[in-house]
Amino acid sequence: MVAPGQDGLLSQMRRGTLQYCVLALLAGEERYAFDLVRSLSDVDGMVTSEGTIYPLLSRLRRDGLVESFWRESAEGPPRRYYHLTDRGRAALTGFVHEWGRFRDAVDHFMEGEA
Amino acid sequence: MTTVDQLVEDYLDQLEQELRDVPRARRRELVGEIAQHIAEGNAESEAEVRTLLDRLGEPAEIADEARERFAVPQRPRAGGWLEIAALILLLPGSLIPIVGWLTGAVLLWMSNVWSWRDKLIGTLIVPGGLSTVLFLGLTGTEVGGGICTGDGACAPDPATSGHVLRTVAFILVLIGPFVSTAYLAWRLKQARA
Q1: Subunit contact A49:B34, Cβ cutoff 8 A
Q2: For the whole model, what pTM was predicted?
Q3: In angstroms, how far is the first alpha carbon of chain A from the final one?
Q4: What is the ipTM of this complex?
Q5: Could you tell me the CA-to-CA distances from A21 to A57, B9, B36 in Å, in that order?
Q6: How many A-B residue pairs are in contact by the CB < 8 A criterion?
Q7: Does A75 have pLDDT greater than 80?
Q8: How many other β-carbons are positioned within 10 Å of the β-carbon of residue B186?
Q9: Which of A52, A53, A58, A79 would best serve as a mutation to test chain B binding (most B beta carbons within 10 A)?
Q10: Interior CA angle at A91 toward A87 and A97, to 5°?
């Protein structure tokens, strides 16, 4: 059950963490946009509207955390692929560290509440 | 055009409309990417296309996200005094020579409700507004008759056809400010709907 006010909280938490999920998906391999979007939305609770990921991708490109390039596709028009830049990798590493600390801290207080 | 094509086209049109206050290059890029996403979805039946568009989300929601990520001010939902003042100054206010229309034009460009194209239309049709029309009316297009000889007979002026053209041009200039202001008012109403 979602208590009053938690709907907004969830979307704030998603907003803050979604970009790192994108970076994490790109850490292993380069992916094209559609594939990236579907990978994110297939996990329950992360993305409610797939279309909202595109403005984020554009933002990440502009901030230099990812780079995109076009590659021919056997099935149709060329696809825009994304890969992580050094800056993106550094941002991801920093987040992984902070996220671990944050998660442990919250869990510490939530113990016994679940 | 099939129902499926129509669904996609309506969706993209709506998205484009919702993104009107996002800078043109970014709007183009985003609409292009969403269009490609739809193409890659390989949806063929109407039901499949509807599911694909549902998963993408409401165009308004995507546009809100875009404004937030691109740091474009969120569109004002209420108020709109700036826009009303702009419309008043651009039409009746433009009877005050220069200052009236100029202030209206500044307000027009300050607003984030109208698109760049709307603003261009509002500015170019007609610079100076009604003052320009009056000025042209008083100086440029005197309604000429013909050449009259001493005995009272008048021959048509060889330049009459030029006059006709000028009169037509003048009428077009005269209705211009009314048409462009009505267009801006319509776009404003659309944006607030």
Answers
A1: no
A2: 0.62
A3: 13
A4: 0.86
A5: 12, 31, 22
A6: 66
A7: no
A8: 11
A9: A52
A10: 145
Taking Cα atoms as reference points, which of B40, B32, B43, B34 lies closest to residue B62? B34
User: Are A50 and B66 an interchain contact pair (Cβ–Cβ within 8 Å)?
Assistant: no
Give contacts of A52 with chain B, Cβ < 8 Å: 57, 61-62, 65
Token pair for residue B23?
A: 């800078």
| Residue A31 phi, psi dihedral angles, 5° rounding | -140, 155
Interatomic CA distance for residues A25 and A16, integer angstroms: 16
Res A39 pLDDT > 90: yes
What does the pLDDT look like over B41-92, one tens digit per residue?
A: 988 899 999 999 999 999 999 999 999 888 887 665 545 888 989 999 999 8
| DSSP helix/strand/coil, B31 | helix
CB-based contact B95:B131 (threshold 8 Å): yes
CA A92, CA A58: separation in Å to the nearest integer?
A: 17
CB distance B40–A76 less than 8 Å? yes
Tell me the three state secondary structure of residue A33: helix
Pairwise CB contact (< 8 Å): B37 & A50: yes
Chain A residues within 8 A of B40 when measuring between CB atoms: 34, 76, 79
Helices (H), chain A: 6-28, 33-41, 53-62, 86-110
Which residues on A lie below 8 Å from B39 (Cβ)?
Answer: 76-77
The separation between CA A15 and the C-alpha centre of its own chain, rounded to angstroms, equals 9
Q: What local confidence, expressed as pLDDT, does residue B144 receive? A: 46
Beta-carbon separation of B57 and A48 below 8 A:
yes
- CA A41 from centroid of its chain's CA atoms: 10
Q: Do A54 and B57 touch (CB under 8 A)?
A: no
Cβ(A38)–Cβ(A90) under 8 Å? no
| Least confident piece of the model among A37-46, A80-89, B144-153, B174-183 | B144-153
